Every structure is written in C-alpha cells, then in structure tokens.
Structure prediction request, 140 residues.
Amino acid sequence: MRVSARRRDGYAHEVEIEGGHSIVVDEPLAAGGTDTGPSPTRLLAASLASCIAITMEMYAGRKGWDLGEVGVDVDVEYDGPAPKSFAASLRLPPDLSDEQRERLLVVARKCPVHKALAGQTAVSVAHGEPVAGGGGEGLG
Prediction:
C-alpha cells in the first residue's frame, strides 16, 4: 500500500492514498498554513478514533452483537507541535453487558493504529526518486 503527498500551495498537500482516495492535508492558519484540510497530527488522531471504532464494530459483528450507535472520542495533548499523548474514550450503548464492554475495551487497544502509535511499528525515511520539474533550488 502506498500513500503519496504532493505540495499544492504553502503547507497544503494533496495526499493520494492507494485505492483511489485523496485528502488535502494542511496546517492551521496559526501555524502558517491555509487550513484547507486537517493537519497531519489531527489526521493521526482521526485515524486512531476511526480505527478503534471500526475494530470494535468488526469484532462485534463476528460475535453477532448489535452495537447500534458507537462513538470514539480522542483527545490529544501536545508538547509543542508534536502529540505527547492520545486519550481515547469509548461511547458504547447502555444495554451492553459489563463483559461485552470489557471485551470491546480490550479489542479497541488492539486496533492497528493503536499498535503503531504504541511503538510497535518501524518507520524509516530515505531518499526516493527526484520530483519531476526540480524545485527546491537554494534550500540549505
């Protein structure tokens, strides 16, 4: 799977995601962006919230549980521009048993994005192919 970010203007980037999806990622006005899309760290929090929700729903589906309305809120604490911590809060229907609630909490902590954020995924950065048309002259 590949994701590619290409600069549009300023900090705004068009991000193409394998499978035919795209999203604009930018910085807020206060950080010098144009606020035409979520910032990368806000997108990361959105990825965590949606991954937890989908993981719980998939698990519940396999168990034959009808979850109905489910919500996940993620609060992010920052240390400068970088997230310091993510706190996810599950909003589950009141008619679930204590056992079901506990099981969904365990499953939520196993979502792929949670695993990546918890330091269980290697990340590397290296030079790739040059961008067509050059650009970047005078940097450094």
